[in-house]
Amino acid sequence: MTDQPVPDIRPDVPHGARIWNYWLGGKDNYAADREIADAVSAVFPEIVDMAFKSRQFLTRAVRFLAGEAGIRQFLDIGTGLPTMQNTHEVAQSVTPEAKIVYVDNDPLVLAHARALLVNTTPEGVTEYINADYHQPERIVEQAREILDFSQPIAVLFMGVFGYVPDYDEARSIISRVVDAVPSGSYLALWDGTSTSEAVVRGAQAQGELGSPYALRTVDEIRGWFAGTELVEPGVVPVTLWRPADVEVGQAEHIDAYCGVGRKP
């Protein structure tokens, strides 16, 4: 891990990474995080299932990218707290020489990253950048010190843009990173969608407690892939993106859509 100072942790201020950690059954969260998480799940119990199913999409997407797509470099922006099947673990299990750069700005994530986000293979590289995804140029600049930007890179934004109220701002962040990576790179992302009354109520409850979460339409999620060639099956619920054989026939609709696109 790159040696970086750990800012003060504010347990009284809720943070998205810790809220999702709570929904995933983790212990790296505080009362302020749990208050919001419980309020959302009270009106939208499916949020817990969404947390797990979206994580499973990350696993399948990274396995596809490291395997079939032949990607050896990953830039995972808005990493969140280490949990089940982290990006480097999946990628390096498929291709041991994979390089992974994680990006997040939560001090608790940084503290855990130093201890847990370490190589699973001697050939691999796992590094962490302490930065906000509102600073794409800074992210790219620091990532260039670790990754080879003359070779394809997979850019991951997994469930992070609900905390960006303005749709065009989120699209700008994506395009500024994707513009920096070469042809043959990939963009993989998912986010919450306003596809049921229950999920809308959940987002409203979260906003009322001071942690607004912006849901998107399916067309808006699709718009984030502008300029890329979508990999089959396109933009779909996270449960329907290349489900494993054991999942076929059991995948249900979920209020989170995803996709993987290749930069031509």
From TrEMBL:
Pfam families: Methyltransf_19 (PF04672). GO terms for molecular function: methyltransferase activity. The keyword Methyltransferase applies. The keyword Methyltransferase applies. One of its GO terms (biological process) is methylation. SUPFAM superfamilies: S-adenosyl-L-methionine-dependent methyltransferases (SSF53335). It comes from the Bacteria. Signal peptide: none annotated. Keywords: Methyltransferase, Transferase. This is S-adenosyl methyltransferase.
